Amino acid sequence: MDQALVIAAHGSHLNAESSTPTFSHADTIRATGAFSEVRESFWKEEPHFREALRTVDAEEVYLVPLFISEGYFTEQVIPREFRLDDWDPALWDSDGTSADSATLTADDTGQTVHYCGPVGTHDSMSDVIVQRAKSVTDDPDVGDGFGLAVVGHGTERNENSAKAIEYHADRIAKMDRFDEVAALFMDEDPEVDDVTDFFGSETHSASGRSHGRRPCEDIVVVPLFIADGYHTQEDIPEDMGLCEDYRDGWGVPETVDDRRIWYAGAVGTEPLMADVVLERAADAGADVRAAIEQVRGETDDASAAGD
């Protein structure tokens, strides 16, 4: 039976670049030939969620949300718009970061839909964050002497928003690669405005937000966002003190409080993100292991070529 992939992303009416990573990752996956069809779909752009399944001929579809956290969009909007009438968040049996997949039938098309958890909470996203650090520093061995800040939006409306950030900060800290790792936020404590405060002589408790061994003068900052936009290109650089006005730009690295800040931009623009989409589909039963190896190999080759 043919298998198809549908990627569901937010999109934007205001930011023309919002959909660029989605199309890029879809193209990467399409080139592997793992699926008979690969479709992009959006909440705020065309092609819209509601019409996506009608553009797919395959009877079996893997639906992967290109979102960072579990919450309103993954638990309510996407299932409703794709008309997965038997959907219930309990089918994921998740604590906020452990969604896997649920197999459902689309009410109007009759297609079998394997509805996957969002890319942002998959374990392989930790590897993408590390890869982002490699890319921005142009150093495949980055870690020793460096701190890493994983930055999220944070919101009181969705506690899972912070959970995803903390989850990956915890996982990367356990890799023992970076001297310090911190989970920071835009709209809740600890805030990214004070990024240099979390990379100093005082190490922070493993209750969550920071883990460290010793001070470090270099800090890589990776925003856990799917696409670059207002927050990653305006708010966060200004909040961290990389610039007074984002329109003036900033250096990479930029010095703030005698620390070198390597600002990476949205993690979702990293080419290795295509691997996370494939991993989600594989966990749901898709036969894509060869495609996963191909994408990882191409990413490794690209990194080596940049050395």
Topology:
Layout: E1 3-9, H1 20-32, E2 37-42, H2 49-52, E3 60-65, H3 72-81, E4 101-105, E5 112-116, H4 125-137, E6 146-152, H5 159-174, E7 180-185, E8 210-212, E9 218-223, H6 230-240, E10 254-256, E11 259-263, H7 273-283, H8 289-305
Parallel strand pairs: 1-2, 1-3, 3-5, 6-7, 6-9, 9-11
Antiparallel strand pairs: 4-5, 7-8, 10-11
Q: In a few lines, what is going on in this structure?
A:
The chain is of the alpha/beta class. It has eight helices and eleven strands.
Protein model, in words:
- There is one protein chain.
- With 307 residues, this protein is of the alpha/beta class.
- The chain is built from eight helices and eleven strands.
- It has two domains: 3-121 and 271-305, Rossmann fold; 125-269, 3-Layer(aba) Sandwich (Rossmann fold).
- The protein has helices at 20-32, 49-52, 72-81, 125-137, 159-174, 230-240, 273-283, 289-305; strands at residues 3-9, 37-42, 60-65, 101-105, 112-116, 146-152, 180-185, 210-212, 218-223, 254-256, 259-263.
- A six-stranded mixed β-sheet has the order 8-7-6-9-11-10, sandwiched between helices. It has a five-stranded mixed β-sheet with strand order 2-1-3-5-4, with helices on both faces.
